[in-house]
Amino acid sequence: MDLLPLLRDRYSVRAFSDRPVEPETLDRVLSVAGISPTARNKQPQRLYVLESDEARAKIAELSPCTFGAPVVLMMCFDRSEASDSKLNPGYDFGEMDASICLDQVMLAAWAEGLGSCWVGMFSQEEVRVAFDLPESYHVAALMPLGYPAEDAHPGPMHEKSRPLGELVTRL
């Protein structure tokens, strides 16, 4: 397995084809949600798959960044189930756990030929109320998912990054 090309090639897709995502393909992508690492293996993440016309229309009203995708993932975590840290009070392990999980789902999707885009542009409270989520649930991110449109391409900043020396400090 060569992971580096996948990591280098993946980009945020903001234009999707109307081709539906096959259930077996989606199932393979979603299967990594249960094997992603979480603090103390608490697994507080809750992944909602918005694929019905009604659910996708509802989330499209609440976020301008669904890009017409045939599937939108809504990653939540249950604050009441997330690990806590006595050594690092206030550190949000639920947010970390959900982010790790969604990142792995995003990479699995790319490996299956599906594009995605990490979205944080939504009102936490409006989404929670619209989907009748429990009070203890926090919506960490949305992720439109589907086959990239023929004219989809990486954004202009895709190839730009800071020099490694600015990002990494060796001690």
* Backbone shape: globular
Top-tier CATH class: Alpha Beta
Biggest sheet, spatial arrangement of strands: 1-2-4-3
Proportion in β-strands: 15-25%
- Number of spatially distinct domains: 1
Q: Please provide the ordered H/E string of secondary-structure elements.
A: HHEHEHEHEH
Could you tell me the CATH topology label.
Answer: NADH Oxidase
Structural class: alpha+beta
* Number of DSSP helical runs: 6
Q: What's the CATH architecture name? A: 3-Layer(aba) Sandwich
- Poorly predicted tracts of residues: none
Total beta strands:
4
What proportion of the residues is helical, as a percent range? 25-40%
Please report the distance between the alpha carbons of the first and last residues.
Answer: 31 Å
How is the main sheet built? 4 strands, antiparallel
Rg over CA atoms, rounded to whole Å, is 17 Å
Mean pLDDT: 94
Domain Nitroreductase: 7-62, 66-147
InterPro entries: Nitroreductase, Nitroreductase-like
Organism: Kribbibacterium absianum
Keywords: Flavoprotein, FMN, Oxidoreductase
Give structural notes.
The protein is α+β, with helices and mostly antiparallel strands and about 170 residues long. It has six helices and four strands. The protein has a four-stranded antiparallel β-sheet, sandwiched between helices. The two termini are about 30 Å apart. It is about 30% helix and about 15% strand. The protein has a single domain (about 5-150), classed as NADH Oxidase (3-Layer(aba) Sandwich). The radius of gyration is 17 Å and the shape is globular. Helix 2 crosses helix 4.
